[in-house]
Design a protein that fits this description.
Membrane topology: Multi-pass membrane protein
Strand order of the largest sheet: 1-2
Order of helices and strands: HHHHHHHHHEEHHHHHHHHHHHHHH
InterPro entries: RFT1
Number of helices: 23
Pathway: Protein modification; protein glycosylation
Main location: endoplasmic reticulum
Organism: Stereocaulon virgatum
Structural class: mainly alpha
């Protein structure tokens, strides 16, 4: 049997490329992933708008249940392993941040040829990632049995339900099968490979889903949710093909394999394959992952159990629109931020100039991110509720405006700030917390779970708030999670300061200016007055609304100009002359040159 030893490394003696600061690399990676998310989500969004013209709320409700079935299996199978692997650093971790010749799959191959990561480190993440598929097989069987057993007669009467469920199960297992390749791509920072795999798979999924639905509509066939199942299967197949094509050569050049192989027969490895420290961390995170999934998707589980299918479809539509910003922007930023937060020292580490510098970078990054989130949240709260009914009528059609979707979408706009703040704070916690602190957080989340269940029961059964009540329950839970994470971050920064000038987070540096808040309130008032007829608005009202929104955006950009200018990457300023005038660097350079000439 093949064996990988600790000293089996590739060594390159070429001169290393120009080094980029960790914070700049994190920002560049975040921007790259954000662009990918925007592209794929925009494509999915456009296709969904077409599908909504062919689907009833009932069918969309069943499709949402099957999507929840797949997401639950994926989360319980791989999430804790992914978080644990974020704490696995290569021997040359600083060099992995270097880039040669830009980004993209072809440049990923060039960078891998420089010997990024040892064979042992690559094989460690591959072996651990295979556990995801091992967990996924019994979980898939269990969830499929549970779904068919608990589904009501209306759901079971949906055309091709059983076939669609089994296709979803197969697609989910195929996604878990490629988890080792994904782990290698993430460890080696092969963002180009990850982006192209996700984009091509999403494009194929959209085309297959749309083509199947249109074909069924034109031929008069009732295929139920089969188009969604076929799209999901095509997504998994393309994802496997792209990752295998790009990652297998990288593993081969580094003497590793995408199959599970023995590493070292010592006490550090279970069965000579699985790193004991990584397994311990993953096991610690697994309990927390259960609570996270229930808290994050608890509203989906509740509405699937308590609401009618048309109500489920309306809620799913509204939450998809409301969560579009979170999926496109917040998640990639959180993922990239973990790379920076993962380099932070533990609170017991003695402070040094190097550790203080890293902590200062993390504090600045976290402060700027929360400030940026606050501006986006201001737009969501000011513009979202009054614009929800007419936008929903335009995008989804008139039949969706008579459901609960407009009310749920308006309520979801108030949840967006809480989702953003909680996501980045928990990214910080997951990167630096010790196993004992993670267990303490899990205990706190148990209390939050009880609070969520109680709030949901009151909202649904006592107050009869229906789907909007689930948004309220989510908000109560998010506030509780934010409170714990905020306290953790402040305690951590206080313990690691060590007199090095590192301060805690300051709320005053994260909120919009008073003038931005005033402009937001004025825009909200104008839109509410203009759109007082709800979804039934004319061209004149829409033009007035567009002018209001444009003036609002310009006003916020003016009052927040100093912050926005500070967020422009230096690399972009160097390449684009217009940004040099915007930031004032060209003016400073010209004045300095004039003084030198004199």
């Amino acid at each position: 049997m093949a064996r990988v030893t600790a000293d089996s490394e590739q060594i390159d003696h070429a001169e290393p490329p120009h080094k980029r600061p960790v914070s700049s690399e994190s920002a560049l990676s975040a921007a790259f992933l954000v662009l990918n998310q925007i592209g794929t989500r925009a494509l999915t969004f456009a296709v969904n708008q077409l599908l909504l013209r062919y689907l009833s709320p009932k069918t969309y409700g069943v499709a949402t249940q099957l999507e929840l079935f797949s997401v639950s299996i994926l989360y319980f199978s791989r999430e804790s392993l992914r978080v644990a692997l974020q704490r696995q650093h290569g021997d040359d971790d600083s060099e992995k941040a270097e880039h040669v010749g830009g980004r993209g799959p072809e440049n990923d191959h060039r960078r891998s040829a420089l010997g990024h990561g040892t064979t042992r480190r690559i094989q460690e993440v591959v072996n651990i990632s295979h556990i995801a598929f091992g967990l996924g097989v019994p979980l898939t069987a269990f969830f499929a049995w549970l779904y068919l057993r608990s589904a009501n007669s209306v759901v079971l009467a949906t055309a091709h339900l059983h076939s669609s469920l089994y296709i979803y199960a197969l697609a989910t297992l195929l996604e878990l099968l490629i988890e080792p390749a994904f782990a290698v791509a993430k460890q080696q920072m092969l963002d180009g490979t990850r982006v192209w795999a996700e984009f091509r798979a999403s494009l194929t999924k959209c085309l297959v889903t749309c083509a199947t639905a249109i074909w069924a509509s034109r031929t008069g066939r009732d295929v139920g949710v089969l188009p969604f199942a076929m799209g999901q299967l095509s997504y998994a197949v393309v994802l496997n093909l792209v990752y295998v094509w790009n990652i297998v050569p990288i593993c081969t050049r580094n003497g590793a394999s995408l199959l599970s192989k023995t590493i070292n027969p010592n006490n550090m490895y279970f069965l000579s394959r699985f790193s004991r420290p990584l397994i311990t961390i993953a096991a610690t995170f697994y309990g927390q992952a259960i609570f996270n999934q229930i808290l994050t998707s608890g509203d989906s589980y509740l509405i699937a159990a308590l609401a009618t299918l048309p109500a489920q479809g309306a809620y799913a539509l509204a939450s998809n629109y409301g969560g579009l910003l979170a999926r496109m922007l917040f998640q990639p930023i959180e993922e990239a931020s973990r790379s920076l937060f993962g380099r932070l020292p533990t609170k017991d580490s003695p402070p040094t100039k190097s550790t203080n510098r890293i902590v200062q970078q993390a504090v600045a990054h976290l402060t700027n991110t929360l400030h940026f989130y606050s501006l986006l949240s201001l737009f969501a709260i000011s513009l979202g509720p009054p614009l929800s009914p007419p936008l929903l009528r335009t995008l989804a059609g008139a039949r969706w405006t008579v459901t609960e979707a407009p009310a749920v979408l308006a309520a979801y706009c108030y949840l967006i700030p809480l989702l953003a703040i909680n996501g980045i704070l928990e990214a910080f916690v997951s990167a630096v917390a010790t196993p004992a602190q993670i267990r303490a957080q899990s205990s706190w989340k148990m209390a939050q779970l009880c609070a969520f269940a109680g709030t949901s029961f009151i909202a649904l059964k006592i107050a009869y708030m229906d789907a909007p009540g689930l948004v309220v329950a989510n908000a109560v839970t998010m506030i509780s999670r934010i409170a714990w994470s905020w306290g953790f971050v402040q305690r951590y920064l206080g313990a690691t300061a060590g007199g090095g000038g590192v301060m805690g987070l300051k709320v005053s540096e994260m909120v919009p200016s008073v003038w931005s808040l005033a402009v937001g309130a004025a825009a909200r008032g104008c839109l509410s007055f203009t759109l007082d007829h709800g979804a039934d608005v004319g061209v004149g009202e829409l033009v007035q609304s567009a002018v209001t929104v444009a003036a609002y955006v310009v006003g916020v950009m003016f009052f927040e100009r100093h912050f926005l200018i500070s967020m422009i990457p230096e690399a972009a300023v160097d390449r684009l002359p217009i940004l040099q005038y915007v930031t004032g660097t060209r003016k400073d350079a010209d004045e300095k040159k004039s003084a030198t000439d004199l």
